[in-house]
Design goal:
6-stranded parallel β-sheet, about 425 residues, 4-stranded mixed β-sheet
Length: about 425
Amino acid sequence: CTGSGSFKLSYYNEYKSYLSAGTCSMAQDFIANLDPYNGGICDKYENGKRRMYVILSPEEVAAGKTTRWTELDIQNKGIKNFSPYLWSLHHLTALYLNNNKIVRLPSEVCNLQNLKHLDLSNNKLRSLPVELGDMLKLQDLLLSNNSIRLLPYELGRLFQLNRLELDGNPLTPELLQKAREVNGTQKLLMFLLDTLEAPDIPPARPWISIRERTGKHMTFTVMCYNILSETLATRTKYGYCPSTALAWDTRKILIMKEILERRADIIALQEVETEKYSSFFLKELSQHGYLGVFQPKSRAKTVTEEERKHVDGCAIFYNKSKFALHKDKYFDFSQLAIANSEGADDMINRVQTKDNIGIACCFDIKDPTNASKHQKMIMLNTHINWDPEYSDVKLIQNIMFMSEVDSFVKDIKGGHSLPVVVCGDFNSTP
């Protein structure tokens, strides 16, 4: 026997004993005795929000109807401790524990991973468990009028938190001042996250060798990597990351380290900013025997020179000891949409407005085992539109790209038999 909405309990453990015994009717009778409505729907207003619970009638229970309550209200009861059973209610999205006598919040609270609202105001809390920072779905955390002197830096990980109430605690003036500013919650979380000690460097990725290189045939390796452009690496999108982790000066070192550790013969990168292609990637990789080609997204043609530096695009780097560039071509999906619209409004209104691009390169392969052998291959790189609301655009962009690549290959002597390697960020699940 369960309810939906907010469930106000005067004697939580007694109710639990009824449920654990599987006696729905006893539990319902117990609640009915507590509530003047004697069953049915009960409303409660608090802070302008409606909170409601539903008690199933005997007829509904007999008919097999079930409900699921997602909020639990245990306030104004003078509670000091909790039953461990409380932390097993993983379905809860709201927990009201305000106006009690709670001194300590157990670390097991982090088991409630679906919790969005947690009210602990008007208690006697002196500290908070660091595990509270693992409750990433929290949107409201009310801690007013306790005895909290310090906030765990781990709270900075709560990137979805919209409301953090701290008034009435003996916190430092600095923390209280930040919390009271405009957008104070976000500023305080940012401060806590940036102050949090950086985690250990993650372990090396476990690479899986699909097939050992055997025989005398020429082999090569390919890396495909969306590096996340500096412009897109913002706290708004990645609120769970410290500023230092998002800073380009930090990330570029780690990205280049990853690339050079792999030592792939061909490297296909997405979201490379125009200025960073020449000033960083080409400059660094050329010292290790690579040459490259690059194409920014089509909006680079319509923005100012300063803005053009930050427009991202696709790049292909290749080991010059193994490959020589025979021919390359860039594909502007926006222009292709116009050329292929045939009067279709969606091609103009949906596809043409997206500035994604693609690159095709034809390479001459330098085979050290046979210098007289002239073999070619085709290498592709693209970045398809990201928006899940534009799945049709993703499909059309891929179709246009493959169609243009087909024409590109046919223009190359013997192109119909050339091997083609396709790389890209397709922003789609398989």
